[in-house]
Every structure is written in structure tokens, then in C-alpha cells.
TrEMBL record:
Keywords: CBS domain. It comes from Azotobacter beijerinckii. PROSITE patterns: CBS (PS51371). This is CBS domain-containing protein. Residues 7-65, 71-129 form the CBS domain. The keyword Isomerase does not apply. Pfam families: CBS (PF00571). The lineage of its organism: Bacteria, Pseudomonadati, Pseudomonadota, Gammaproteobacteria, Pseudomonadales. Signal peptide: none annotated. The keyword Transmembrane helix does not apply.
Length: 137
């Protein structure tokens, strides 16, 4: 099975100059803890609710702080034509709960998460990724 068969296709993106307040409101609206940061046609980062809490609020930064200051740059990703088992093993190895999905032209086409992998109803696959991401860093 390929990642394109299980990934989430409608991925919300934000711009690096948007405020963390706007991003947090969007996260609440769509019930998501992570958003991809796009600049032009390039994926430049990811921002999570944890980034906002730890890298912004805990350090006294206000709601007008731009996403660029607190996002995680250099995001890892997978390709839509990769095998699900391979991606699950990779996610476990690098302790990630979600990965952006790119096509071979390196254009964003979706996101794969633990939930997507669980939807495969493959106990071995679920065990692989859950064991890996649950380990302490």
C-alpha cells in the first residue's frame, strides 16, 4: 500500500509572517495541533501547538509574534509513492507523529499521521510506529 492511499489530502497551510495568535485560532477552528508553513511554493516549516506554548508563550513572546520565529524549520517529509510500512518505520525511527507528503516534484500533496496509519488496520504497522514515537527522545 502506498502513502497516497491513506494520507490526508486537504492540508491547511500558513504563511511564515502570520501571527501565532492567528495560527492558534486556526488550529482551534480545524481541531489540529500542527500546521505546515509555506512560503511561495516551498514548504519552509511546521508549527505545532507545542511550538507556540514552549517557544513563544513560555519565553514571554506575544500573540503578534510571527510564525517564522517559533516554527520548526527543515521539516522532514515522505513521498506519496512510498510504501506505508517504510514510512511507518521511518516515523518510528525519527520519533515523529506526522509527516508532510510530497510528490516527486517536491510539491505538497498531503499529510500522514499516526491516525492515518492506524486506519490501515494492520496491527504490525501500528505497533511499529506507536512503539517508535512513544519512546523518549
Amino acid at each position: 500500500m502506498k502513502i497516497r492511499e491513506i494520507m490526508t489530502r486537504n492540508v491547511q497551510i500558513v504563511e511564515p509572517e502570520q501571527s501565532i495568535r492567528d495560527v492558534a485560532q486556526l488550529m482551534e477552528q480545524i481541531d489540529s495541533g500542527a500546521l505546515l508553513v509555506h512560503e511561495g511554493d516551498r514548504l519552509v516549516g511546521m508549527i505545532t501547538d507545542r511550538d507556540i506554548a514552549i517557544r513563544a508563550i513560555a519565553k514571554g513572546l506575544g500573540g503578534d509574534t510571527p510564525v517564522r520565529r517559533v516554527m520548526t524549520p527543515n521539516v522532514r517529509y515522505c513521498f506519496d509513492d512510498e510504501d506505508v510500512q517504510h514510512v511507518a518505520s521511518n516515523m518510528a525511527d525519527i520519533h515523529l507523529r506526522r509527516l508532510p507528503v510530497m510528490n516527486r516534484a517536491k510539491r505538497l500533496v498531503g499529510m500522514v499521521s499516526l491516525g492515518n496509519l492506524a486506519s490501515c488496520n494492520d496491527p504490525q504497522l501500528s505497533n511499529t510506529v506507536l512503539h517508535g514515537v512513544a519512546q523518549a527522545h
